[in-house]
Structures are given as structure tokens and as C-alpha cells.
Queue: 2 jobs
Job 1
Amino acid sequence: MSDSIRQRVHALGLTLPTASQPAANYISHVISGNQLFVSGQIPLIDGKPAYVGRLGESLSDEDGTQAAQLAALGLLGQLSDALDDDLSRLARTLRVGVFIAGSGHFNQQSAVANGASNLLVNALGDKGRHVRTAVGVSSLPAGVAVEVDAIFELQP
């Protein structure tokens, strides 16, 4: 496989987005020691929030899975930006957090979060395997259904 994150994503039939800019007073990613922390990414299409609504109300489980995949694509955009698109600099994905806005009765957070997890593993191979938290919340920025953040380990 290629050592380019962009090429790996392209091989999946997807387009790697340009790393999004922060929406408030924070930075999109930071490297500390051999760890890369990526701020929460929301699903964006042409730079605009996508999958606005809540699971179990206006959005289906499938919508949530697609939103999670799209948000994870944003994570890969940040990873590519931080590593100058050089996958060989990545040791592994450590942790992924998936936040899912849903109705009070929605309980399929893990299934929705698989949209993000599957994309990371498919794009990064074994370097994409990770521990994960999938959490239901009442609302997210811009009213989107999913937000995803991650911690990556870098090569020393």
C-alpha cells in the first residue's frame, strides 16, 4: 500500500478533504511528544455542516453511519495535514471518540460509530485499529448528528 494518506483514501473511492479550520478559539490538531491530538471533526460537505438533526428523530441510523464516516474523513484530512501526507510517520491510531446526537430513546451509538471506525481501519490498515468511545449526547455544534475526535501515536 501507498505511504500517502491521500492515496489510501482515494483508493477507497473517496476524496480527502482539506483540513478544516477551527470554528472557535482552539487549534485543529497539536503534536505533543509522540502523540497527535485532533480536535472534534463534524461531517462537512463543501465546507458546510452535513447530516443536521438527531438520530431517532429526523435522521436514520444509516444517516448517522454516513455522518460518522464523513466526520472521520475530516480526521484523516487533519492527519494528512499534520504529517505532510506521510503515512510512514504514523505508528497507530490510539483512541477515537464518537459523539452522536440522538433522541432520548436512541441506543445504536456503537453501530453508528462503526462508520468512523471502519473508515479509519480501511484507510490506514492495522495503523487504524483503535480503542473507542461512542457517546450519546443531546446536541452537537452546528446541529450535526456526529462529531469525531482522535489521538494518534507518531513514530519516534
Job 2
Amino acid sequence: MKGNEKMIDMLNFLLADELTAISQYMVHSEMCDNWGYEKLHKAIEKRAIDEMKHAEKLIARILFLEGLPIVSNLNKMHIGPVVEKQHNNDKMAEEGAIKAYNEAIKLAVEVGDNGTRELLEAILKDEENHIDWIEAQLDQIGQMSIQNYLALQLSEG
């Protein structure tokens, strides 16, 4: 099915965002693993895998719309040198994603592409869950101090 060119361009923009997030989150996950923060490592790795699934769905949709998925574009990554900065950088990435998905949903409605709109709405819900988790982590750091927070992220055993 031949899709709207503006919609395909928007999907490729979102794809670049997802591919960037995968890379950023995997680096953060591996840094946490290296520091021994096993719980954070697993949680951030899971978020990276969620983003991989989003990228896969966007690629499939672009192909369905007879577009060409552009997988070589990455945006600037913001790697945090410490856990709190990682959370803040990831929060910024999720805020950008939420804004972009809302804009893309608006475009899908304008061009009458309800299949794409439904896909984007489902991904948007995931992104909102991601930012909710990150905000909870930042709240915990604020309430219990970074040292106590990090002590809770160590593996048990």
C-alpha cells in the first residue's frame, strides 16, 4: 500500500530516535552492569529491548507503506557518567520521544492513516511507561539519597 510521503518521513524520524535510544540505553545498561548495579542493568536493558521492538515495528510499517527504512541515521547520544545523570539523560530522550509520537499521531490523523495512528499510539503508551519508571527512580534518589538508592541496585547474592 503506497503511503503518504510525509508520514513515511516522520516514521523514519521516529526510527532514528528509537535506534539512538537503543544505543544510549545499552551503553547505560552495560555501565551499570560494570559497576555491579545488577537491578539497574536488567531494567535499562529491558527498556533498550522495548525500543528495539519499536524500531522493528516502525521498519515493518515503513515497508508496508512502500517506503525505505533508513537505519543509518542516529541522533546525538547523551551518555551519563553516573547513574543519576544517566536517568536524567534517558528522561530527556523519553520526553523527546513522547513529543515526537504525539506529533506523528497528529500527522497520521491528518493524512487519514489509522493503521499507523494505532501503531504510534501503542508505542506512545510504552514511552509513557518508560518515563514514569525513570521519574520514579529520580524521585527515589531525591528521597533516599544516591548512596542508599545505589545500594538497593546491587545484585542480591
